Amino acid sequence: MAMENKQIKMPLDQRYEYKFSVLYLNRNEVENVIKSHPAMFHEIYFKRSVNNIYFDNSNLTSFVDNIEGFRDRKKVRIRWYGSLFGLCKEPTLEIKYKKGLLGWKERHSLKDFNLDIDKHFDYKSIFKYLIERKDFDIHKLDLQLLSPKLLNRYERTYYLSYDKKYRITLDNKMEFYSINPITNHFKIFSDEEKTVVELKYNQEHAEGARLITEYFPFRVTKNSKYVIGIERLRNWK
Known about the structure:
two-stranded antiparallel sheet, 12 strands
């Protein structure tokens, strides 16, 4: 059964996100494909490391909803950039909603917190930290039954088309850390070779998207990093 989205008001800035599975090209080859595209994609921002703690309920509803391909679903994570361990600066609680092919995010800024692998992972304090926040209501956001399930990290590069209508992200150097609530211990799995390419654009630019994708030698696929991480850690001995 799909995760319920309570009192959700769909915003106007919804966007399409298409992910591509890259199986036979290395990172340099993928970058060459993007940079030689007729839409003249160019790199923006700085390449940076993205860190996420994903939340789910005891039934892993978010994971199952994605696997089953439910039209309406929700994913909850804490995201920050830069160092994975130590002081996590400017973290954000992100609730990512999906209705059909369209998606949007709800964001809430959080205070800096510490993540120390030498002292293991303080499983309880992360969620307690959210509960004690006064600027949003976890019950109204339907987060009260969630707990951290997965920590992941990857390197992201950003590209923008010349007309500024289409954005591409390229992610690789993926690492996944399972979270054990009993021992507060990490189990680590690296997937350094996997590359995920994602095309993102707003609703008003949907008509021209086919001209963008037809030049890619990649295939569209479901490629949630949360799903990838849970599956990898389940199968890893």
